[in-house]
Amino acid sequence: MNRFHLPGCLIIEEGACERLNEILADCIPGIEEKKAVIVTEESLLSIIGAYLDEMKRDLPKSELYLIEKNSFEQAMELAKYICMKDVEIIVGVGGGKVLDVAKYAGFVGKIPYICVPTTLSNDSLSSPVAVLGTEGDARKTLKCAIPAGIVVDINVVMNAPLFHLQSGIGDTISKYTALYDWKLDAAHRGERVDDFSYLISDMALSSLCYNEEKSLKSKEFIKILTQSLVLGGLAMEIAGNSRPCSGSEHLFCHSLEENHKEIQISHGMAVALGSLVSCRLQGRDVGMLEAVLKAYHMDMDPMNWGITKEIFTDAWLRAADTRKDRHTVLNEVELSEALLGGIYEQLRAGN
Ligand SMILES: [Zn+2]
Is the pLDDT assigned to residue 172 strictly greater than 70? Predict the structure, then answer.
């Protein structure tokens, strides 16, 4: 059985950033005496700068560290800083870019990492992986540790642009096809499906898909989405890999990133689009996914994201090659330009 860890604290409340020091003191006893590094990026200072100033006042040994991009080099530079300056705690405050760098640097520096997301755009806030790029290469998913604590300020994430929340929905509903692909792998070559991890990922999916609150900018919805994203991360930690949250729909997203860098689409939107296609390839009814995406006004017309039929077809034909070690529905259906072109037209027509 895979050995796993769970975060020591999970706080989802309004105004959590205003009392971040209090929360951190509960989560990590004696933190005020420890040397902490607070990681964020310059563009966020106008939004969260006041909270960080307060943190620095109450944590006298803390330092602010600004990052510029989510590169492997940036994470290594930060890890070096942690090691050379004897930093004991790392707190990442920001979106996916900041959080991935802070998470990986904390893992390399072997210190506890506290995650304070300012957006809810994917399940990396609690996952045991960080996605980092390096010059000239596609971004890579790197194994690391899950956070020691997660603090979500409902007011902060609710005020982020709407597309972040829609991306978070996309990353959650993609579990519908990812879980199916995981079972396909088990049937095909005996890949072990961890039952508990499967259950948690399925719960993350169901609690979002079958909830009554459809207003994205509501406190109730933010709580549901946070819980679903956190559960997704925990499912990966328990499984010891990303299979409970990542199937053929994620391979499509990787293929777009690697082969069509000009396409500007968020991870969550790309995997949502991917799920609509994978679900059809899996021979399943796409009605539930379509209903959820429609309820949250998510634009699933590929052309509106700059994805032409040629790009769409090419990305799917090359998707399986992005992770050859994974068996998914892409290894079981005969993909052709005609089949993919037909699905593309269905997506464009909204059915
Ligand atoms: Zn994802």
Answer: yes
CA 164 to ligand 1 centroid distance, Å: 13
User: pTM of the full predicted structure?
Assistant: 0.93
- Give burial (CB, 10 Å; 0-12/13-18/19+) of 32: middle
Residue 3 covered by a domain: no
Same domain? For 199 and 145 the reply is no
| Structural domain includes residue 291 | yes
The predicted pLDDT at position 259 comes to: 94
Cβ count near 339 (within 10 Å): 15
What is the distance in A from the centroid of ligand 1 to the CA of 86? 33
What are the tens digits of pLDDT across the range 124-155? 899 999 999 887 777 788 999 999 999 999 99
pLDDT of residue 61: 87
42 contact partners, CB below 8 Å, separation of at least 6: 66
pLDDT at 351: 61
Report yes or no on 307 lying in a domain. Answer: yes
CA of 269 to the centre of ligand 1 (A): 10
* 19 CA → ligand 1 middle, Å: 30
**Could you list the residue range(s) of the whole structural domain that residue 56 is in?**
9-158
Do 195 and 94 have their domain in common? no
Q: Do 212 and 312 share a domain, yes or no?
A: yes
**Pairing of the two strands 137-143 and 129-134:** antiparallel
Q: Are residues 117 and 254 in the same domain?
A: no
CA–CA distance, 250 with 323 (Å, rounded to integer): 10
| 2: in domain | no
